[in-house]
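Limitations
The C-alpha cells in this dataset are predictions for the assembled complex, not deposited experimental models. Users should treat interface geometry with appropriate caution, especially where small molecules or nucleic acid strands are included. An illustrative entry is reproduced here so readers can see what is and is not provided.
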Amino acid sequence: MRKPTAIIADDEKQLRLHLKNKLNQIWPELKICAEAKNGMEAVKFAQKHKPDIAFLDIKMPGKSGLEAAGEINKICRIVFITAYDQYAVDAFENEAIDYILKPIENSRLEKTVTRLKKRLGPDNNESNKSIGSANITQILNKIAENITTTQGTKYLKWIRAQHRENIRLIPVDEITIFKATDKYTTVFSKDGEFLIRKTIKELATQLDPEKFWKIHRSTMVKISAITKVSRSVTGRYIIKVAGHEKPLTVSRSYIYLFKQM
Amino acid sequence: MLITRYERLTVEQLLKEYSLVIVFDTIIAFLLWTIMPDKESFIWFFILAQFIGLSISTVGNILFQLFKPATTSSQIFLHIISLFMGITTALFLFSFFFDTRIINYFYSVLSVAFIFGVIITYFFIAREKYSQLQIAKQEEELKRISLEKENIQANLKLLQAQIEPHFLFNTLSTVLSLLDTDIKTGRNMLENLTQYLRTSLKHTRNETNTLKQEMETIQSYLDINKIRMGDRLNFKIEIPNDLYNIPFPPMLIQPLIENAVKHGIEPKITGGTISIKISEKVPGAISDKEKILKVEIADTGTGIDSDLSSGIGLDNVKKRLKALYQDKSFITFEDNKPSGLKVTIGVPYEKTDSNNS
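Predicted assembly:
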C-alpha cells in the first residue's frame, strides 16, 4: 500500500513547522508533499499533488481555509485548523468535519489522526473522501458567513470624497445631509462639507432606507438627525436637522414619509 | 416674537403669536382710554390698537419671510421697518374704514404706537431668547449624561475587545510551537505578551499612562505579530523625543494598530507596512498652552471597501475620544497611497514644564 500524503496550509511559517513536526511524531508514514502560505497556494498544491488530506487554517490571506476547502473537497479530505471560533467548532462537530484546535494538543491530534487513518483505510471507498457529500460547499459557506465579523452589507458604510490631495473616508453614520449641487453632491457631516461625484439618485439606492430618507429630488437626510418637523402656513412640511441651521422643505411627493409620524 | 422669523412659520406659531398680540393690544387700548381726557368710546381705542398691533405683526411676518435676514443687525433693522410700516398701514386703513380724523393725529399716534411696539417686540425677543437658553441647557445636560453612559460602555467594550481570544490563542500556539524549535524567540514572545496584558489590565483600572507606555504596549503587540507573520509585517514608529512623557490615556491608539494588522495587513497575501507617526499639530492649535497631538496610523494593507462596516475597534475609539475630549478631538480616515488605510486622530494635551525635562 502506498504511503498517505498531505498538504499543510497556514499563513504562519512557525505553525506549519509545528504541525509538521507533530504529525511526524504521531503519524510517521504520512508524507507532507507541500506547504502553502495562503488559500490560493493551498488550492494550487492540492490540484497539483492530489494529496489524501489537506490541513487548512481557516484564517488565511487571499482565500480563507473555508473557501479553499469548497474548491478542493472533491480532491482530498479536509482537516481544518482553527484558533478560536466557537461557532465553527460547533458546526464542525455537528457536520462531522475534521478539525484541529490551535494550540495543538497531542491527545486531540492523535484522535483526529486515528479517525483519518480509519477513513483512508482499505475498508473505505473513494467516495468517502468528500465527507457529507454534495452539500458540503453549502455548509462551508454557512460557516464562513457566520464567523466573518466584518461582513460587508449591501448598504454603503463609507463615502469617499476628495479632500485636498487625499481621498477622505467619511463614515456614513456621521453624515446628516446629502444635497445635490450641479453635477455633484454636497455631503454635510460634523467635520464639514464635502463634494462627491455620486448623484442623489445613485445614493438613494445605496444607502440604508431605514437610516436615510429622500425628502426632495435633491436632498437626502439622516432620519435620526431630524430634530424638528413642522408644517408651514402653505401646508408644506419643514424639517430641521441637527447641526444644520437652515430648515429643509419636504417636497410633496415625500410628505407621506412624515404623515405616519 | 421676531428673532426667529427667518424660519418658515407654522400655523400653530402664527395662531399663538396673533392671540398674544391681541391680548397686548387690548391692554394698551385700555390704558390709553383711561388716561385720555376726551370722552371717546373705548371701542375706538380697541379697534385702533388691534389694527396697529395686527398689521405690525403681519408686515413683520411678510418682511421676514421675504428677506430671511441672518445677521442680528439686519434683523433689528427689519423690526424697525416693520413697526413703521405696520403703524402707517394701520392708520390709513383705520381712516379709510372708520374715522378720517385720525390722520390729524398721525404723528402722535405713530410715536405712542412706536414706543409700545418697541416694548412688545423686546418682550417677544427676550422670551424667545430665554426659551432657547432653556433648550440649550437641557440639551447640554442630556449630552453630558449620554457622554457618561457612552464612556462606561466604551470602557466595557474595550475590556472585552482587548484580550481578544483569537489573538491570545494564536499567540500561545506560536509560543508553544517555538518551544520545540526556537526557545529564545519563544521567551521573547512570552515577555511581549506579558507586557501587553499588563497594560490592558491597567486600563481597566482607569490609571493614566504616558505616551511612552502606550507606545511600549504597541511595540509589544507589533513584535508579537511580527514573530507570527514574519516578512509579511513591517512597521516603523516616529515620535519626537520631547513628546514621550506627556500623559496619554492607555489603549487609545492600540485598537487602531490592531485594526491595521487584522483588517489591513493580515488579509493581504504580500503583507505590508504599518507606519505610526506622532507629531504636534501646529496649525489650528486651540491656544499656546493647549496643543493638539496628532497621531497618524497608515497601513499599506487591503484598505476598506465602501460597504464594509467600520468594525467594533474603530467605533470604540470614536466613542472613547468623544467621552474623553468631547469636541476637542478628531478622527479622520483616508485612503493611504498607494493602498491601505490611514487613520489620523488628534487629541488636546497640555504641555507642562516637567514634560520638557
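Some entries come with short summary sentences. For this one: Confidence is low (pLDDT under 50) at residues 126-130 of chain A.
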